[in-house]
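Protocol step 4 of 6: structure prediction from sequence.
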Amino acid sequence: MSKSRVVIGVVLAAAALGAAYFGWLRQSEVEPEPVAPPVVTPAAPPPAPVASAPAIQYPVPAAEPEAPPKPLPALADSDAYVQAALTDLLGKKNVLTFLQLDSFARRVVATVDNLAREHAPPMVWPVNPTPGRFSTRGTAGAETIHPDNSQRYTPFVLFVESVDTAQAVKLYVSLYPLFQQAYEEVGFPKRYFNDRLVAVIDKLLAAPVQDGPVSVQLVEVKGPVPSERPWVRYEFADPRLEALSAGQKMLIRTGPVNHRRLRAKLMEVRKLVTGAAVAPALAASAPRP
């Protein structure tokens, strides 16, 4: 179960046409002898405008001063440093239970960007996939997400709620150069990762909470080899839900209670990484479509 990008328009400068008049001379009353027309060298075209990086919308909050500040390792050598920082914040058990620590900064950047897109491949997630299988109830053609399916996500939701949001954002700010470098390496050298983070959070907050049964259907896969994992081939029966981004679909699949609890945490994070409150339209629980 599964974008918006900033588009920069480039305005071209108009060429000056005044040179077309340079060969004109005012005629006298006596017609002059014919002369060869002057050779006019075409004016050089104006230089193409240089594309500039878009203005930063949400600057990362200033880091708290340290004496002396700790230098960050290079991105390629940052795994041990990041693991130690995460362990200090979350505890060793939680880190080992819930997180994928190798290339953590790159995983965070790739997953944040993917959550607003159609697909968010688990292979690059910074968190471990939820144990168990996606479950439904009902008969083929009339299946809904099983109410008990949300229990699979409860341990992770409780873990997220237990994290001190202010301390988590403080760590994010201290590690931000690593996230920015990873974002540039992904293919966005003129983009600001914190802006993308806020845009993705806003998209997630816009996911409609589903308080009633959610209909799903099994995607048919044709071929001689039967699927060994049919539970990963479900999609929403409602095309409006199926058209949502990968992250929005994930939130809906956690169930309405977990969805609202995760939304509350997202709003806390957004406020701290921007210094601004969430817009009322996003702060309210989105109704069913």
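Step 5 (inspection) to follow. Residues 75-220+230-279 form one domain.
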